[in-house]
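Limitations

Structures in this collection are predictions, not experimental determinations, and the ligand pose is part of the prediction. Treat each record accordingly. The example that follows, with 6-O-phosphono-beta-D-fructofuranose as the small molecule, is included so readers can see exactly what is and is not provided: the inputs are given verbatim, and the output is the predicted complex.
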Amino acid sequence: MERTHLVLSSGFTFDYTNLYGQGLVTQTDVAAIGERLMAAHQAMEHMRSTGEIRGHLSKDGAPEKVLFSQLPYVQADHLNSPASIARLKEFGQSLRNKVDAVVSFGIGGSYLGNKVLFDVHCGEFWNSRGAEERQGYPRLYFSGNNIDPRRTVELIEQIKYEARLKAVHAGPHDGAYRAQLVVISKSGSTLDTMSTFMAVYDALRRETPAVEVQVVAVTDLAEGAGETLLHKLAAEQGWPMFSVPDGVGGRFSIFSEVGLVTAACIGFDIDAFLAGARAMDEACRQEDIWRNPAMLNAALKYLAAEKYGQDIEVFMPYADNLKSVAEWYVQLLAESLGKRTDRAGREVFYGRTPIVAVGTTDMHAQTQQHQDGRKDKVVQFVKVAAWENDPVIPDVFPSAGKLSEISGLRLSQALDAAREANAAALRSDGRFNATFVLPEMTAYHLGELLYLLALSVAYEGELADVDAFDQPGVEAYKRLLGPMLKQHSP
Ligand SMILES: O=P(O)(O)OC[C@H]1O[C@](O)(CO)[C@@H](O)[C@@H]1O
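Predicted complex:
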Protein backbone atom coordinates (compact mmCIF):
# COMPACT_ATOMS: atom_id res chain seq x y z
CA MET A 1 0.00 0.00 0.00
CA GLU A 2 1.34 3.46 -0.93
CA ARG A 3 2.14 5.66 2.05
CA THR A 4 0.46 9.04 1.95
CA HIS A 5 0.07 10.65 5.39
CA LEU A 6 1.90 11.01 8.67
CA VAL A 7 -0.61 11.85 11.39
CA LEU A 8 0.45 12.78 14.94
CA SER A 9 -1.77 12.11 17.95
CA SER A 10 -2.61 15.85 18.07
CA GLY A 11 -4.08 15.56 14.59
CA PHE A 12 -1.20 17.49 13.00
CA THR A 13 -0.72 15.87 9.60
CA PHE A 14 1.90 15.78 6.90
CA ASP A 15 0.09 14.75 3.74
CA TYR A 16 2.73 13.79 1.19
CA THR A 17 0.39 12.05 -1.27
CA ASN A 18 1.61 14.31 -4.08
CA LEU A 19 5.29 14.20 -3.17
CA TYR A 20 5.94 10.48 -2.88
CA GLY A 21 5.04 7.70 -5.30
CA GLN A 22 4.98 6.96 -8.99
CA GLY A 23 6.51 9.86 -10.95
CA LEU A 24 7.46 11.64 -7.71
CA VAL A 25 10.05 10.78 -5.07
CA THR A 26 10.01 6.99 -4.98
CA GLN A 27 10.48 4.28 -2.41
CA THR A 28 13.73 3.35 -4.14
CA ASP A 29 14.99 6.94 -3.78
CA VAL A 30 14.30 6.93 -0.04
CA ALA A 31 15.82 3.48 0.39
CA ALA A 32 18.96 4.60 -1.45
CA ILE A 33 19.72 7.25 1.17
CA GLY A 34 18.77 4.99 4.11
CA GLU A 35 22.24 5.03 5.66
CA ARG A 36 22.58 8.79 5.32
CA LEU A 37 19.19 9.23 6.91
CA MET A 38 20.28 7.15 9.88
CA ALA A 39 23.48 9.18 10.16
CA ALA A 40 21.42 12.39 10.03
CA HIS A 41 19.13 11.06 12.70
CA GLN A 42 22.05 10.17 14.93
CA ALA A 43 23.49 13.64 14.36
CA MET A 44 20.19 15.11 15.59
CA GLU A 45 20.27 12.92 18.68
CA HIS A 46 23.84 14.00 19.30
CA MET A 47 22.83 17.64 18.88
CA ARG A 48 20.01 17.18 21.39
CA SER A 49 22.24 15.65 24.04
CA THR A 50 25.44 17.68 23.56
CA GLY A 51 24.62 20.71 21.41
CA GLU A 52 27.34 19.61 18.99
CA ILE A 53 26.90 19.70 15.23
CA ARG A 54 29.81 18.43 13.20
CA GLY A 55 31.63 21.23 11.42
CA HIS A 56 29.58 24.09 12.80
CA LEU A 57 31.69 27.14 13.59
CA SER A 58 30.70 30.57 14.80
CA LYS A 59 31.36 33.74 12.79
CA ASP A 60 34.74 33.96 14.46
CA GLY A 61 35.67 30.45 13.40
CA ALA A 62 35.36 28.85 16.83
CA PRO A 63 33.25 25.72 17.45
CA GLU A 64 29.79 26.79 18.55
CA LYS A 65 26.95 24.83 20.10
CA VAL A 66 23.52 24.47 18.51
CA LEU A 67 20.92 24.57 21.24
CA PHE A 68 17.55 25.37 19.68
CA SER A 69 16.29 21.81 20.32
CA GLN A 70 16.55 22.49 24.07
CA LEU A 71 14.14 25.43 23.96
CA PRO A 72 10.82 23.55 24.09
CA TYR A 73 11.90 21.84 27.32
CA VAL A 74 11.41 24.28 30.19
CA GLN A 75 13.75 23.19 32.97
CA ALA A 76 15.75 24.85 35.71
CA ASP A 77 19.11 24.30 33.96
CA HIS A 78 17.82 25.10 30.46
CA LEU A 79 17.75 28.20 28.28
CA ASN A 80 14.03 28.40 28.97
CA SER A 81 13.58 27.81 32.68
CA PRO A 82 10.47 28.10 34.86
CA ALA A 83 12.00 31.31 36.24
CA SER A 84 12.73 32.81 32.81
CA ILE A 85 9.24 31.99 31.53
CA ALA A 86 7.70 33.45 34.70
CA ARG A 87 9.73 36.64 34.22
CA LEU A 88 8.50 36.96 30.63
CA LYS A 89 4.90 36.53 31.72
CA GLU A 90 5.36 39.09 34.48
CA PHE A 91 6.72 41.49 31.91
CA GLY A 92 3.62 40.93 29.75
CA GLN A 93 1.32 41.45 32.72
CA SER A 94 3.16 44.62 33.70
CA LEU A 95 2.12 46.17 30.37
CA ARG A 96 -1.56 45.37 30.68
CA ASN A 97 -3.76 48.42 31.10
CA LYS A 98 -0.61 50.50 31.59
CA VAL A 99 1.19 50.62 28.29
CA ASP A 100 -0.61 51.92 25.22
CA ALA A 101 1.68 50.58 22.52
CA VAL A 102 4.69 48.35 22.14
CA VAL A 103 7.07 48.94 19.28
CA SER A 104 9.19 45.89 18.54
CA PHE A 105 12.42 46.65 16.69
CA GLY A 106 14.26 43.86 14.89
CA ILE A 107 15.01 42.24 11.56
CA GLY A 108 15.49 38.70 10.27
CA GLY A 109 15.30 36.27 13.14
CA SER A 110 14.73 39.16 15.51
CA TYR A 111 11.50 40.04 13.74
CA LEU A 112 10.04 37.33 11.52
CA GLY A 113 9.02 34.91 14.27
CA ASN A 114 7.61 37.74 16.36
CA LYS A 115 5.45 38.78 13.43
CA VAL A 116 4.16 35.20 13.12
CA LEU A 117 3.06 35.17 16.77
CA PHE A 118 1.45 38.58 16.40
CA ASP A 119 -0.44 37.63 13.23
CA VAL A 120 -1.69 34.31 14.52
CA HIS A 121 -2.78 35.67 17.87
CA CYS A 122 -3.89 39.20 17.04
CA GLY A 123 -4.95 39.11 13.40
CA GLU A 124 -5.06 42.15 11.19
CA PHE A 125 -7.17 44.54 13.24
CA TRP A 126 -5.72 44.29 16.76
CA ASN A 127 -4.31 47.79 16.72
CA SER A 128 -7.63 49.33 15.74
CA ARG A 129 -9.49 47.64 18.59
CA GLY A 130 -10.17 49.18 21.97
CA ALA A 131 -8.09 48.23 25.00
CA GLU A 132 -10.95 46.19 26.45
CA GLU A 133 -11.16 44.01 23.36
CA ARG A 134 -7.41 43.54 23.62
CA GLN A 135 -7.92 42.49 27.24
CA GLY A 136 -5.76 45.36 28.31
CA TYR A 137 -2.78 44.25 26.24
CA PRO A 138 -1.13 47.07 24.29
CA ARG A 139 -1.21 47.77 20.61
CA LEU A 140 1.87 46.37 18.92
CA TYR A 141 3.82 47.81 16.04
CA PHE A 142 6.93 46.53 14.34
CA SER A 143 9.85 48.57 13.13
CA GLY A 144 13.45 47.93 12.16
CA ASN A 145 12.61 45.24 9.63
CA ASN A 146 13.45 47.82 7.01
CA ILE A 147 15.28 51.13 7.01
CA ASP A 148 12.34 52.72 5.24
CA PRO A 149 12.17 56.47 5.95
CA ARG A 150 8.48 56.90 5.12
CA ARG A 151 7.28 53.94 7.21
CA THR A 152 9.44 55.09 10.12
CA VAL A 153 8.05 58.62 10.04
CA GLU A 154 4.50 57.31 9.65
CA LEU A 155 4.95 55.08 12.69
CA ILE A 156 6.18 58.04 14.75
CA GLU A 157 3.23 60.12 13.54
CA GLN A 158 0.80 57.33 14.37
CA ILE A 159 2.06 57.11 17.93
CA LYS A 160 1.98 60.87 18.38
CA TYR A 161 -1.58 60.87 17.02
CA GLU A 162 -2.63 58.16 19.49
CA ALA A 163 -1.00 60.13 22.29
CA ARG A 164 -2.87 63.31 21.31
CA LEU A 165 -6.11 61.38 21.18
CA LYS A 166 -5.48 59.93 24.61
CA ALA A 167 -4.73 63.39 26.01
CA VAL A 168 -8.02 64.74 24.61
CA HIS A 169 -10.07 61.95 26.19
CA ALA A 170 -8.04 61.62 29.39
CA GLY A 171 -9.73 61.70 32.76
CA PRO A 172 -8.04 63.38 35.77
CA HIS A 173 -6.33 60.11 36.79
CA ASP A 174 -5.16 59.01 33.38
CA GLY A 175 -1.46 59.29 32.87
CA ALA A 176 0.46 60.13 29.72
CA TYR A 177 0.56 57.81 26.71
CA ARG A 178 3.10 55.08 27.40
CA ALA A 179 5.16 53.48 24.66
CA GLN A 180 7.22 50.39 25.38
CA LEU A 181 10.08 49.99 22.92
CA VAL A 182 11.46 46.46 22.65
CA VAL A 183 14.80 46.39 20.84
CA ILE A 184 15.78 42.93 19.66
CA SER A 185 19.20 42.25 18.19
CA LYS A 186 21.45 39.29 18.91
CA SER A 187 24.52 41.09 17.64
CA GLY A 188 23.28 44.32 19.19
CA SER A 189 24.37 46.59 16.37
CA THR A 190 22.35 45.70 13.28
CA LEU A 191 22.01 48.84 11.18
CA ASP A 192 18.34 48.37 10.30
CA THR A 193 17.24 47.79 13.87
CA MET A 194 19.41 50.34 15.61
CA SER A 195 18.93 53.18 13.11
CA THR A 196 15.13 52.99 13.27
CA PHE A 197 15.19 52.50 17.04
CA MET A 198 17.23 55.66 17.51
CA ALA A 199 14.96 57.63 15.15
CA VAL A 200 11.77 56.53 16.92
CA TYR A 201 13.23 56.77 20.45
CA ASP A 202 14.43 60.30 19.87
CA ALA A 203 11.23 61.50 18.19
CA LEU A 204 8.99 60.08 20.91
CA ARG A 205 11.10 61.37 23.76
CA ARG A 206 10.77 64.85 22.31
CA GLU A 207 7.02 64.48 22.86
CA THR A 208 7.45 64.42 26.66
CA PRO A 209 5.19 64.74 28.66
CA ALA A 210 2.63 63.51 26.06
CA VAL A 211 4.55 60.25 25.49
CA GLU A 212 6.38 58.32 28.19
CA VAL A 213 8.98 56.05 26.64
CA GLN A 214 10.38 52.93 28.25
CA VAL A 215 12.82 50.49 26.67
CA VAL A 216 13.61 46.82 27.00
CA ALA A 217 16.61 45.27 25.23
CA VAL A 218 16.79 41.70 23.95
CA THR A 219 20.34 40.78 23.01
CA ASP A 220 23.26 38.46 23.62
CA LEU A 221 24.06 39.05 27.28
CA ALA A 222 27.64 37.78 27.13
CA GLU A 223 30.02 40.02 29.00
CA GLY A 224 33.64 40.98 28.36
CA ALA A 225 35.25 41.29 24.96
CA GLY A 226 32.19 40.04 23.06
CA GLU A 227 29.72 42.32 24.82
CA THR A 228 27.17 43.70 22.37
CA LEU A 229 26.65 47.43 21.94
CA LEU A 230 23.01 47.02 22.84
CA HIS A 231 23.91 45.18 26.04
CA LYS A 232 26.32 47.91 27.01
CA LEU A 233 23.79 50.61 26.25
CA ALA A 234 21.02 48.84 28.17
CA ALA A 235 23.31 48.48 31.18
CA GLU A 236 24.25 52.16 31.03
CA GLN A 237 20.64 53.30 30.61
CA GLY A 238 19.23 50.88 33.17
CA TRP A 239 16.91 49.22 30.65
CA PRO A 240 15.61 45.77 31.61
CA MET A 241 17.03 43.00 29.44
CA PHE A 242 16.07 39.65 28.00
CA SER A 243 18.49 37.28 26.42
CA VAL A 244 19.22 35.92 22.96
CA PRO A 245 20.91 32.78 24.18
CA ASP A 246 24.28 31.57 22.98
CA GLY A 247 23.87 28.68 20.60
CA VAL A 248 20.52 29.88 19.24
CA GLY A 249 20.76 31.55 15.84
CA GLY A 250 18.26 34.24 14.94
CA ARG A 251 16.22 32.05 12.63
CA PHE A 252 15.76 29.45 15.38
CA SER A 253 15.07 31.99 18.11
CA ILE A 254 11.28 32.12 18.01
CA PHE A 255 11.19 29.58 20.85
CA SER A 256 13.56 31.68 22.97
CA GLU A 257 13.05 35.01 24.74
CA VAL A 258 13.31 36.68 21.31
CA GLY A 259 9.93 35.33 20.20
CA LEU A 260 8.45 34.86 23.64
CA VAL A 261 8.85 38.51 24.57
CA THR A 262 6.32 39.38 21.87
CA ALA A 263 4.13 36.49 23.01
CA ALA A 264 4.14 37.98 26.52
CA CYS A 265 3.22 41.47 25.25
CA ILE A 266 0.03 40.22 23.56
CA GLY A 267 -1.04 37.39 25.88
CA PHE A 268 -0.15 34.61 23.41
CA ASP A 269 -0.13 31.20 25.11
CA ILE A 270 3.59 30.57 25.66
CA ASP A 271 3.07 27.25 27.45
CA ALA A 272 0.91 25.78 24.70
CA PHE A 273 3.32 27.04 22.03
CA LEU A 274 6.31 25.36 23.68
CA ALA A 275 4.24 22.24 24.40
CA GLY A 276 3.47 21.94 20.68
CA ALA A 277 7.16 22.33 19.83
CA ARG A 278 8.03 19.73 22.47
CA ALA A 279 5.48 17.24 21.12
CA MET A 280 6.94 17.70 17.65
CA ASP A 281 10.47 17.20 18.95
CA GLU A 282 9.39 14.00 20.66
CA ALA A 283 7.72 12.72 17.48
CA CYS A 284 10.93 13.48 15.62
CA ARG A 285 12.99 11.27 17.89
CA GLN A 286 11.58 8.21 16.09
CA GLU A 287 14.11 6.37 14.01
CA ASP A 288 11.46 5.21 11.57
CA ILE A 289 11.32 7.85 8.84
CA TRP A 290 7.62 7.21 8.23
CA ARG A 291 6.87 8.29 11.80
CA ASN A 292 9.33 11.14 12.03
CA PRO A 293 7.87 14.29 10.41
CA ALA A 294 11.11 16.30 10.24
CA MET A 295 13.19 13.46 8.81
CA LEU A 296 10.48 12.62 6.27
CA ASN A 297 9.91 16.22 5.20
CA ALA A 298 13.65 16.82 4.85
CA ALA A 299 14.28 13.58 2.97
CA LEU A 300 11.45 14.06 0.47
CA LYS A 301 12.33 17.69 -0.25
CA TYR A 302 16.06 16.92 -0.47
CA LEU A 303 15.41 14.08 -2.91
CA ALA A 304 12.92 16.16 -4.90
CA ALA A 305 15.64 18.79 -5.31
CA GLU A 306 18.69 16.62 -5.86
CA LYS A 307 17.17 13.88 -7.97
CA TYR A 308 14.34 15.66 -9.79
CA GLY A 309 15.51 19.28 -9.90
CA GLN A 310 12.62 20.55 -7.75
CA ASP A 311 14.77 23.06 -5.92
CA ILE A 312 12.22 25.79 -5.34
CA GLU A 313 9.83 25.50 -2.42
CA VAL A 314 6.69 27.58 -2.62
CA PHE A 315 5.37 27.81 0.92
CA MET A 316 1.65 28.45 0.56
CA PRO A 317 -0.60 28.54 3.61
CA TYR A 318 -4.30 28.84 2.94
CA ALA A 319 -4.81 31.50 5.61
CA ASP A 320 -3.96 35.20 5.60
CA ASN A 321 -2.69 35.08 9.17
CA LEU A 322 -0.15 32.40 8.22
CA LYS A 323 1.49 34.42 5.45
CA SER A 324 4.12 35.48 7.94
CA VAL A 325 4.95 31.81 8.56
CA ALA A 326 5.95 31.66 4.90
CA GLU A 327 8.07 34.80 5.39
CA TRP A 328 9.67 33.32 8.49
CA TYR A 329 10.38 30.13 6.54
CA VAL A 330 12.13 32.09 3.80
CA GLN A 331 14.88 33.10 6.21
CA LEU A 332 15.01 29.67 7.80
CA LEU A 333 15.46 27.84 4.51
CA ALA A 334 17.57 30.43 2.73
CA GLU A 335 20.10 31.19 5.48
CA SER A 336 20.30 27.60 6.68
CA LEU A 337 20.73 25.75 3.42
CA GLY A 338 21.87 28.24 0.79
CA LYS A 339 25.56 27.37 1.05
CA ARG A 340 28.53 27.71 -1.25
CA THR A 341 30.56 24.89 0.27
CA ASP A 342 29.94 21.60 2.01
CA ARG A 343 31.47 20.83 5.37
CA ALA A 344 34.66 19.62 3.73
CA GLY A 345 35.05 22.99 2.01
CA ARG A 346 34.13 21.77 -1.49
CA GLU A 347 32.00 24.09 -3.62
CA VAL A 348 28.49 22.67 -3.83
CA PHE A 349 26.24 25.75 -4.15
CA TYR A 350 23.49 23.95 -2.29
CA GLY A 351 20.11 25.43 -1.47
CA ARG A 352 16.46 25.35 -2.30
CA THR A 353 14.88 28.70 -3.07
CA PRO A 354 11.91 29.61 -0.87
CA ILE A 355 8.94 31.52 -2.25
CA VAL A 356 6.12 33.09 -0.26
CA ALA A 357 2.58 32.46 -1.46
CA VAL A 358 -0.85 32.56 0.15
CA GLY A 359 -3.96 30.68 -0.84
CA THR A 360 -6.29 31.61 -2.31
CA THR A 361 -4.70 35.00 -3.10
CA ASP A 362 -1.77 33.69 -5.10
CA MET A 363 -3.84 31.25 -7.10
CA HIS A 364 -4.74 34.41 -9.00
CA ALA A 365 -1.13 35.52 -9.31
CA GLN A 366 1.44 32.70 -9.02
CA THR A 367 -0.49 29.53 -9.83
CA GLN A 368 -0.16 30.02 -13.59
CA GLN A 369 3.60 29.74 -13.11
CA HIS A 370 3.36 26.81 -10.68
CA GLN A 371 1.13 24.93 -13.13
CA ASP A 372 2.73 25.76 -16.48
CA GLY A 373 6.16 27.19 -15.73
CA ARG A 374 9.40 25.29 -15.17
CA LYS A 375 9.00 22.00 -13.40
CA ASP A 376 11.32 22.95 -10.58
CA LYS A 377 9.01 23.48 -7.60
CA VAL A 378 7.53 21.78 -4.62
CA VAL A 379 4.40 23.61 -3.52
CA GLN A 380 4.03 23.18 0.23
CA PHE A 381 0.47 23.93 1.27
CA VAL A 382 -0.70 24.55 4.82
CA LYS A 383 -4.30 23.81 5.64
CA VAL A 384 -6.19 24.79 8.78
CA ALA A 385 -8.78 22.04 9.34
CA ALA A 386 -11.21 23.79 11.69
CA TRP A 387 -11.74 27.54 11.93
CA GLU A 388 -12.93 29.26 15.07
CA ASN A 389 -15.25 31.52 13.11
CA ASP A 390 -16.49 30.19 9.84
CA PRO A 391 -19.40 32.01 8.21
CA VAL A 392 -21.81 30.28 5.89
CA ILE A 393 -22.12 31.94 2.50
CA PRO A 394 -25.65 33.34 2.53
CA ASP A 395 -28.17 33.03 -0.28
CA VAL A 396 -28.46 36.77 -0.77
CA PHE A 397 -29.13 36.75 -4.50
CA PRO A 398 -31.27 33.62 -5.17
CA SER A 399 -31.90 34.61 -8.78
CA ALA A 400 -28.18 34.85 -9.58
CA GLY A 401 -27.69 31.17 -10.45
CA LYS A 402 -23.93 30.80 -9.96
CA LEU A 403 -23.90 32.82 -6.75
CA SER A 404 -26.85 30.92 -5.36
CA GLU A 405 -25.05 27.64 -6.01
CA ILE A 406 -22.23 28.46 -3.59
CA SER A 407 -24.57 29.58 -0.85
CA GLY A 408 -24.78 27.26 2.12
CA LEU A 409 -21.07 26.48 1.92
CA ARG A 410 -18.87 27.61 4.77
CA LEU A 411 -16.03 29.91 3.72
CA SER A 412 -13.57 27.27 4.95
CA GLN A 413 -15.17 24.71 2.63
CA ALA A 414 -14.75 27.02 -0.33
CA LEU A 415 -11.16 27.69 0.77
CA ASP A 416 -10.44 24.01 1.09
CA ALA A 417 -12.03 23.14 -2.21
CA ALA A 418 -9.74 25.72 -3.81
CA ARG A 419 -6.65 24.22 -2.16
CA GLU A 420 -7.64 20.68 -3.11
CA ALA A 421 -8.28 21.72 -6.69
CA ASN A 422 -4.90 23.43 -6.82
CA ALA A 423 -3.12 20.35 -5.42
CA ALA A 424 -4.95 17.99 -7.78
CA ALA A 425 -4.25 20.14 -10.84
CA LEU A 426 -0.55 20.23 -9.97
CA ARG A 427 -0.51 16.50 -9.38
CA SER A 428 -2.27 15.79 -12.68
CA ASP A 429 0.73 17.34 -14.41
CA GLY A 430 3.26 15.47 -12.30
CA ARG A 431 4.04 18.54 -10.19
CA PHE A 432 5.28 17.97 -6.66
CA ASN A 433 3.27 19.26 -3.72
CA ALA A 434 2.47 18.43 -0.11
CA THR A 435 0.24 19.68 2.69
CA PHE A 436 0.69 20.29 6.40
CA VAL A 437 -2.62 20.18 8.19
CA LEU A 438 -3.09 22.13 11.42
CA PRO A 439 -6.22 20.87 13.19
CA GLU A 440 -6.83 24.44 14.34
CA MET A 441 -4.91 27.71 14.30
CA THR A 442 -3.74 27.50 17.91
CA ALA A 443 -0.50 28.22 19.74
CA TYR A 444 0.03 24.47 20.20
CA HIS A 445 -0.28 23.55 16.52
CA LEU A 446 1.76 26.58 15.52
CA GLY A 447 4.49 25.34 17.85
CA GLU A 448 4.33 21.95 16.15
CA LEU A 449 4.59 23.44 12.66
CA LEU A 450 7.43 25.89 13.32
CA TYR A 451 9.48 23.36 15.23
CA LEU A 452 8.99 20.78 12.50
CA LEU A 453 10.33 23.25 9.93
CA ALA A 454 13.30 24.21 12.12
CA LEU A 455 14.28 20.59 12.73
CA SER A 456 13.73 19.72 9.06
CA VAL A 457 16.37 22.17 7.92
CA ALA A 458 18.75 20.69 10.48
CA TYR A 459 18.14 17.23 8.99
CA GLU A 460 18.53 18.58 5.47
CA GLY A 461 21.82 20.20 6.43
CA GLU A 462 23.05 16.75 7.38
CA LEU A 463 21.78 15.18 4.17
CA ALA A 464 23.35 17.89 2.01
CA ASP A 465 26.43 17.93 4.26
CA VAL A 466 26.31 21.71 4.69
CA ASP A 467 26.44 23.75 7.89
CA ALA A 468 22.80 24.70 8.44
CA PHE A 469 23.66 27.01 11.33
CA ASP A 470 26.02 29.60 9.89
CA GLN A 471 25.39 32.41 7.38
CA PRO A 472 28.78 33.44 5.97
CA GLY A 473 27.16 34.79 2.80
CA VAL A 474 25.60 37.74 4.61
CA GLU A 475 29.03 38.90 5.72
CA ALA A 476 30.03 39.76 2.14
CA TYR A 477 27.82 42.83 1.90
CA LYS A 478 28.26 43.65 5.57
CA ARG A 479 32.01 44.08 4.99
CA LEU A 480 31.26 46.64 2.28
CA LEU A 481 28.52 48.37 4.22
CA GLY A 482 30.72 50.00 6.89
CA PRO A 483 32.91 51.90 4.41
CA MET A 484 29.87 52.81 2.33
CA LEU A 485 28.10 54.28 5.34
CA LYS A 486 31.20 56.36 5.97
CA GLN A 487 31.11 57.62 2.37
CA HIS A 488 27.51 58.68 2.86
CA SER A 489 28.00 60.40 6.19
CA PRO A 490 27.85 64.21 6.20
O1 LIG B 1 19.56 39.81 15.68
P1 LIG B 1 20.54 40.57 14.84
O2 LIG B 1 21.94 40.37 15.29
O3 LIG B 1 20.17 42.02 14.78
O4 LIG B 1 20.50 39.99 13.38
C1 LIG B 1 19.35 40.03 12.57
C2 LIG B 1 19.50 39.10 11.41
O5 LIG B 1 20.61 39.44 10.63
C3 LIG B 1 21.28 38.26 10.18
O6 LIG B 1 22.47 38.16 10.87
C4 LIG B 1 21.56 38.30 8.70
O7 LIG B 1 22.01 39.52 8.28
C5 LIG B 1 20.33 37.14 10.52
O8 LIG B 1 20.95 35.92 10.61
C6 LIG B 1 19.72 37.66 11.77
O9 LIG B 1 18.52 36.99 12.11
